[in-house]
C-alpha cells in the first residue's frame, strides 16, 4: 500500500510517500508502530524564500536528490511539478500515479464536528471550506491540495483528512471557554487549538526517548515554525494550548501577531478606517517577526540581520523569546509542574539560539540546559544537565508518519 501524505503549512508544503504492507504492522494489523518507517520519497515546497517563488526539494530513500526554484505562486501547478518527480526522472519511485493507494492530508480546522480522521467526501470537503473562515491561512491551502489531488490522480483515489484540532478536542471547559456571553460558546466560539498532529506525535516520541510512560509525564511541547503554538500535556492528554478559536492566537509567529489587546482592533476600525479585510491581512500576514522587524517572517533572516546590528530585528527576536517564556510559564498551573520541555518544528528543532534563550528564562524551574549538547543540535536525547529538574528535548516532528498511520488505520478498519 503506497500512502502519499500532503502536509500543507502556512509557508510550506511537505509530502512523503510510504510504501507499506502488513509486515510493517503490529500484531494488531490496524496499527503501525510508533517508530516511523523511512519514506520512499520526500518532497517539499518552500514558499518563503526567495520572495515570489517556490523552491522544490526532493529526495528518495536511495539518496537521490533534486531541487528547483520556480517563479510561480500557483499552488496546484507547483504541486503538480513536485508530484511529477514521484514517477519521472532520477527520483522516480513508482511506475505511474495509479500506484498510489491513499492520499492523506493534514487539515488544520475541523471544529468540534471532526474529532478523528475521516475519509474525504463532498460533505467533508465542504466543511473544510466552511472552516476556512476560522483558519484563513491554512484551510484554503488544505482544500486546494485535496482538489489538486483529484485533478492530478483522479477522483477515484481515496483521500483522508487528519485534523489538527482533534488532539485538543477534549481540553477542559475552563481552558476552552472565553469570557464572553456563554451563548457564543454554544454557537461554537471557543478555543480549538491547532498543530495537534505534531503535539501528539512529539509527546509520544518524547516519552519513548525518556524511557517513561507518557501517562506519567507532564510536558510542554513547543511547535515553533512559521506558525507557533504550545501544548500542555498531562497523562497523554492535552489540557491547554496557546492557539485558540483560530491559529492566530497565542505566541508571536512569523507573520502572525498572536495575542494582542482586542481594543486595538476596535481602535483601528473606529479611528483609522480599517476594514475587516485590512485587519485580517494585518494580523495574519504583516505582523509577528515580519511586522516588528520590517524585514521578514523567516527567523533565519532575522538572525542574519541581527548580526549586522539591525535594531528592529533584535527587538523582534527579543519579543519572540519573551513571549515564548511567558506563555510557557502561563501553562504551568494547568500541569502542576513540568517534567520535560520539548522543542519541535523548523525553528524548535534547528535553532540552537532559540532553545538556549528560552531555557535561560526558565531557570527558576530548576531547568538547566547543557549548552554543549544543545550546540551539537542533538535530537531525541535530553539536552538538560544531570542536575536539571526538567528535561529538555529537541524532537523532529513526525506529522507525516502520524498522517500515514491514520490512513492505514482507516483502510484496515473498512
Please describe what this structure looks like:
This protein has helices spanning 75-87, 122-130, 139-153, 173-176, 182-186, 196-210, 262-271, 276-285, 288-293, 299-306, 311-335, 345-350, 352-360, 371-375, 399-413; strands at residues 2-8, 12-19, 41-46, 54-60, 65-70, 102-107, 118-119, 159-163, 218-224, 228-234, 237-241, 340-344, 391-394. The model has no long low-confidence stretch (mean pLDDT 92). With 414 residues, it is an alpha/beta fold.
Short overview:
The chain has helices at 75-87, 122-130, 139-153, 173-176, 182-186, 196-210, 262-271, 276-285, 288-293, 299-306, 311-335, 345-350, 352-360, 371-375, 399-413, and strands at 2-8, 12-19, 41-46, 54-60, 65-70, 102-107, 118-119, 159-163, 218-224, 228-234, 237-241, 340-344, 391-394. It is α/β, with parallel strands linked by helices. β1 and β2 (12-19) form a beta hairpin.
| N-to-C SSE string, H for helix and E for strand | EEEEEHEEHHEHHHEEEHHHHHEHHHEH
- Total strands: the figure is 13
Report the portion of residues in β strands: 15-25%
Question: What is the CATH architecture term of the largest domain?
Answer: 2-Layer Sandwich
Q: Regions with pLDDT < 50 over 5+ consecutive residues?
A: none
Biggest β-sheet strands, sense, barrel: 8 strands, mixed
Radius of gyration: 21 Å
| Helicity, as a percent range | 25-40%
Q: How are the strands ordered across the major sheet?
A: 5-4-3-2-1-6-8-7
The count of domains is 2
State the CATH superfamily name of the largest domain. Answer: ATPase, nucleotide binding domain
User: What is CATH's topology name of the largest domain?
Assistant: Nucleotidyltransferase, domain 5
> Gap between N and C termini, in Å?
15 Å
Oligomer: single chain
Q: Calculate the mean pLDDT score and round it.
A: 92
Which structural class best describes the helix and strand composition?
A: alpha/beta
What is the overall shape? globular
How many helical elements? Answer: 15
Give the C-level CATH assignment of the largest domain: Alpha Beta
